[in-house]
């Protein structure tokens, strides 16, 4: 299709083929769901309405006359109809259909959904988690039967009508179909952007985003189905032959790009810049086909995409008024989050697929090249040089050379045309010969069909199955259309992509002279190439671009650093992106300067002491206040800043300057100055100052297997598990007399587009909303970055264990406490998780579910320890959690300032609970600080017989030592903790028990210290 407006019009028609409120009106509305708001909106927008005299797609002329007097060709209807069929087959299991009539002359059968497979969802509102099969029964919050049908329909119609009017601006003009599509895609699921009739939106409120597409299989939302239908319809309409391909594309390298860092700012910049590059890769697809063409990741609600919708696509400013990114002038603004992964999966017109890949690659590399030139110009200007390529050509030449071929782009295109339909009109009777032949080289299948094509589920699905129920009624289990083979197409795409990555070619580059001090790979940028040949004392020489910048722009470069192109871009990116956010806010009248906060390691170390000082309502002594006043305010953890603001402490400004005073003293490298500042603060706090902080890095386990739907990942549910409880029971009864049905129901569901959308939505909401809430509101931490399943955060040592645990359970949506009753939902600001879902801030968000696990590495380090070394230990800790802990585990490294380290790797659950309880016990004023020391004195490798842990001897000795160091009221707790510790040790094997128990207790004792100072200072 060459007319792009027709493409967007087709996509709008596809989005309106089912009403958003379908689940609430199905089996309740006498008019039927298809005669409700979808038809009303189609009339309002001038789209087609099928007339009673037109049957199916045989009519090659006009389907109907619209209100605007235009005529809709049959081809558009065919695209929408085929898209709906394929989307339903890709996402939903099949069901036996009752055979009502048979036209023997035409061989046509009239089929209807069986009564046992019909669900009045308003009466039995249940959501199924697509990765666990767990049921969330919404009747716990009152049910939905008292939701008035007409009120629901009116609210839905008003919502979309108002969106259309706000986008159109002038109702007399023909619709801008692209703008309509983008507005319906982005804000259709968000009732906040249009006026609500009641505070609860007629009890739709939090459920509007989660309303299921099919009440029989409530494991995916109506928005997922409309997205997928629109994606297929756009791909069909955008291809002259109506063919569609699946495109998978990834960029890299990832880890090495992020890992090159010497500060928390570097870490943020690397992850955020990579996320931005990912968006620049996806942007051409979105501009050409719409953001719903990208199945993974889900782009709805991503702030960078919102900015594109507003500034490039022209959606009205006021639609985004309630978005956080338009209302925050700090780096807590969601635009600062690294929200996007380095890969995507999209449905594209088959004839345009190669062109789209070229656009993606050009878009990304052009953007990075322009950014690089801007960075070099900024560096030169700051150092006092002429900042244009004509005057100072060398660094620009170096930049172009070093960015050549970066980032790497790998892709695979698999056309659905490998699947042939013998019955083209009904899109059935599939010939998979070409698909099977294309898959075979990538699978271990010398004979027979490979991959998904060899599964029992496909063997059941591929042919019509004739059934007769107990009452003698004939039923048909209909054969699928090509959409049902999405799992096989995706499998092939992943194998081809993996092959492309393994066979990539490398271009050898020539680098001369001194290399980048951060990466050691490329030569550092210079204004004079002769400087690259200086002798080994070059760092001490003056006059290089970097030595000048170290004096003039310390936030970009530290003394002794000389950077190549990519590290330089990462270093300047925070400044440039902050300006970009300021411009975005100025466009809506916000002229505030965006403040970017980098919380220092020392500030984090003393955060709890500052918090206790604020809560105690004490004041800073006058002599100390005069010294503190001379220093600048520094960034504080968000929770501490809120506490300082809410308390209205009379010395709030001074308190915010304390960490800066101490850091300044430390940077002077003069012990007397630092000791003076330290002693002053210790007198003010009434205790030694804390010198340790915590870093944690969490990563989802087996994410590749989860995306692929591998059964080994424990996130592949069966067909039966995805059914509504009413349907599940009916299916079981019929399977008793039809073994094929039983075999089908027991099969693990393969990967589907809905699965990818569900995973992406869960990862988006976890990283963008939940992780920040946990780290910066529930605890006194600082989120450095959160993208998908990756989280990096800095926290005070006191918050480390509970923050790790809370993040882990929130990732799965299974926090052990909290319910989704009305009371819990209405608790302001509370995060409540249940059955794989999270409720927060008026939203019901699906998380990854109980079967999706995450592993976490953590480091406790001195605030003066080099961050690069701490980060190496942190990555090693995360690796131990994945490997030594066999995933779903945590690993803690304690790096002592006085030398030595402690390492602890355990599974989540009882080990971390026991560690937290031991820490609490040991911090009590009624327990001697010597409790663990005395225990370790006898707990030596050769001091216990081999059966000590099983015979009760080890328990008796441990309980005795803990009890004798505790007050009488805590002695029972001492015995309980000893019993739990020995029970845990019994799981450990052989001679390692003693060493592991010693290590476990040592870590607990270190965590229990009020402050880690003294000899550790």
CATH superfamily of the domain at 244-411 and 511-586: CRISPR-Cas system, Cmr2 subunit, D1 domain, cysteine cluster
Spatial strand order of the main sheet: 16-17-15-21-22-23
The CATH topology of the domain at 244-411 and 511-586, please?
Answer: Alpha-Beta Plaits
What is the first-to-last residue Cα distance?
71 Å
Give the integer mean of the pLDDT values: 83
Helix content: 40-55%
Residues in β-strands, percent: 5-15%
Number of E-state strands: 23
Low-confidence stretches: 48-71, 818-822
State the secondary-structure class: alpha+beta
Protein name: Type III-B CRISPR-associated protein Cas10/Cmr2
Pfam families: Cas10-Cmr2_palm2, Cmr2_N
Domain Cas10/Cmr2 second palm: 692-890
Organism: Yanghanlia caeni
Description:
This is Type III-B CRISPR-associated protein Cas10/Cmr2. Helix 11 crosses helix 16 and helix 26 (725-735) crosses helix 27. Among the domains are: 4-88 and 124-237, no CATH class; 244-411 and 511-586, CRISPR-Cas system, Cmr2 subunit, D1 domain, cysteine cluster (Alpha-Beta Plaits); 607-689, no CATH class; 909-1017, no CATH class. The chain has a six-stranded mixed beta sheet, sandwiched between helices. A four-stranded antiparallel beta sheet has the order 4-3-14-13, with no helix packed on it. 45% of the residues lie in helices and 12% in strands. The protein is built from 37 helices and 23 strands.
Explain briefly what this protein structure is.
With 1017 residues, the chain is of the alpha+beta class. Helices cover 45% and strands 12% of the residues. It has 37 helices and 23 strands.
């Amino acid at each position: 299709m060459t007319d792009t407006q027709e493409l967007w019009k087709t996509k709008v028609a596809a989005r309106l083929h089912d009403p958003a409120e379908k689940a609430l009106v199905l089996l309740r509305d006498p008019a039927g769901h298809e005669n409700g708001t979808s038809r009303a909106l189609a009339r309002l927008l001038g789209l087609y309405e099928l007339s009673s005299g037109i049957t199916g797609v045989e009519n090659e002329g006009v389907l109907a006359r619209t209100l605007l007097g235009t005529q809709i060709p049959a081809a558009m209807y065919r695209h929408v109809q085929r898209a709906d069929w394929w989307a339903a087959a890709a996402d939903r299991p099949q069901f036996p259909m009752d055979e009502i009539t048979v036209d023997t002359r035409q061989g046509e059968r009239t089929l209807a959904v069986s009564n046992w497979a019909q669900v009045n969802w308003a009466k039995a509102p249940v959501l199924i988690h697509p990765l666990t099969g767990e049921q969330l029964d919404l009747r716990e919050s009152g049910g939905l039967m008292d939701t008035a049908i007409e009120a629901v329909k009116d609210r839905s119609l008003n919502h979309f009508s108002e969106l259309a009017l706000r986008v159109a601006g002038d109702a007399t003009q023909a619709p801008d179909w692209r703008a309509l599509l983008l507005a319906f895609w982005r804000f259709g699921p968000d009732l906040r952007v249009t006026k609500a009739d009641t505070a609860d939106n007629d009890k739709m409120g939090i459920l509007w985003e989660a309303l299921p597409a099919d009440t029989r299989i409530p494991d995916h939302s109506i928005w997922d189905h409309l997205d997928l239908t629109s994606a297929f319809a756009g791909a069909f309409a955008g291809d002259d032959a109506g063919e569609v391909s699946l495109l998978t594309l990834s960029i890299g390298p990832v880890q090495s790009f992020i890992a090159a860092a010497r500060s928390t700012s570097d870490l943020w910049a690397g992850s955020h810049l990579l996320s931005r590059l990912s968006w620049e890769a996806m942007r051409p697809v979105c501009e050409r086909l719409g953001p719903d063409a990208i199945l993974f990741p889900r782009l709805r609600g991503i702030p960078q995409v919102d900015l594109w919708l507003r500034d490039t696509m022209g959606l009205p400013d006021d639609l985004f008024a309630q978005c956080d990114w338009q209302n925050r002038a700090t780096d807590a603004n969601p635009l600062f989050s690294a929200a996007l992964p380095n890969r995507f999966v999209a449905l594209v017109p088959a004839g345009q697929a190669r062109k789209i890949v070229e656009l993606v690659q050009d878009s990304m590399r052009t953007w990075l090249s322009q950014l690089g030139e801007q960075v070099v110009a900024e560096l030169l200007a700051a150092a006092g040089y002429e900042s244009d390529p004509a005057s100072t050509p060398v660094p620009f030449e170096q930049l172009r050379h070093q960015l050549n071929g970066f980032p790497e782009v790998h892709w695979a295109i698999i056309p659905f045309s490998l699947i042939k339909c013998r019955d083209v009109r009904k899109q059935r009777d599939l010939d998979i010969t070409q698909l099977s032949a294309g898959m075979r080289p990538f699978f271990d299948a010398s004979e027979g069909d490979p991959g998904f094509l060899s599964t029992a589920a496909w063997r059941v699905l591929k042919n019509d199955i004739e059934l007769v129920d107990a009452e003698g009624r004939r039923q048909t289990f209909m054969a699928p259309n090509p959409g049902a083979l999405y799992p096989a197409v995706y499998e092939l795409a992943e194998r081809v992509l993996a092959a492309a990555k393994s066979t990539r070619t490398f271009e050898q580059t020539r680098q001369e002279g001194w290399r980048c001090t951060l990466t050691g790979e490329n030569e550092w940028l210079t204004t004079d190439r002769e400087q690259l040949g200086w002798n080994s004392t070059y760092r001490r020489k003056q006059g290089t671009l970097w030595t000048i910048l170290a004096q003039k722009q310390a936030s970009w470069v530290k003394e002794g650093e000389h950077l190549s192109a990519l590290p330089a871009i990462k270093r300047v990116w925070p400044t440039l992106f902050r300006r970009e956010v300021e411009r975005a806010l100025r466009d809506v009248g916000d002229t505030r300067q965006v403040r970017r906060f980098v919380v220092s390691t020392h500030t984090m170390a003393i955060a709890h002491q500052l918090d206790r000082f604020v809560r105690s309502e004490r004041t800073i002594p006058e002599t100390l206040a005069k010294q503190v006043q001379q220093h600048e305010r520094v960034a504080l953890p968000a929770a501490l800043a809120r506490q300082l603001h809410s308390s209205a402490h009379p010395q709030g400004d001074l308190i915010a300057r304390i960490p800066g005073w101490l850091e300044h003293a430390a940077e002077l490298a003069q012990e007397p100055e630092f000791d003076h500042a330290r002693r002053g603060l210790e007198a003010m706090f009434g205790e030694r100052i804390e010198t340790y902080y915590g870093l944690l890095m969490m990563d989802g386990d087996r994410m590749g297997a989860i995306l692929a739907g591998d059964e080994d990942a424990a996130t592949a549910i069966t067909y039966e598990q995805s059914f509504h409880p009413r349907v599940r029971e009916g299916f079981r009864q019929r399977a008793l007399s039809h073994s094929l049905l039983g075999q089908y129901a027991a099969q693990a569901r393969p990967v589907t587009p809905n699965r990818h959308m569900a995973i992406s939505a869960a990862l988006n909401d976890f990283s963008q909303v939940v992780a920040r809430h946990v780290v910066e509101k529930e605890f006194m931490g600082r989120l450095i970055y959160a993208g998908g399943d990756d989280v990096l955060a800095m926290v005070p040592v006191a918050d480390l264990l509970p923050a790790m645990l809370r993040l882990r359970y929130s990732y799965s949506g299974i926090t052990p406490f909290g319910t989704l009753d009305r009371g819990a939902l209405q608790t302001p600001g509370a995060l409540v998780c249940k059955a794989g879902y999270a409720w927060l801030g008026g939203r019901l968000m699906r998380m990854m579910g109980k079967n999706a696990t995450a592993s976490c590495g953590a480091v406790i380090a001195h605030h003066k320890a080099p961050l690069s070394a701490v980060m190496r230990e942190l990555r090693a800790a995360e690796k131990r959690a994945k490997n030594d802990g066999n995933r779903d585990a945590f690993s803690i490294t304690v790096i002592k300032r006085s030398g030595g380290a402690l390492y602890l790797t355990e599974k989540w659950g009882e080990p971390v609970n026991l560690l937290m309880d031991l820490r609490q016990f040991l911090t009590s004023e009624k327990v001697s600080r010597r409790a663990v020391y005395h225990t370790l004195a006898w707990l030596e490798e050769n001091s216990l017989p081999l059966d000590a842990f099983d015979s009760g001897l080890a328990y008796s000795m441990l309980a005795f030592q803990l009890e004798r160091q505790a007050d009488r009221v805590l002695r029972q707790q001492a015995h309980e903790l000893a019993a739990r510790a020995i029970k845990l040790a019994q799981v450990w094997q052989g001679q390692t028990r003693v060493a592991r128990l010693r290590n476990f207790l040592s870590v607990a004792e270190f965590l229990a210290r009020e402050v880690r100072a003294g000899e550790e200072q």
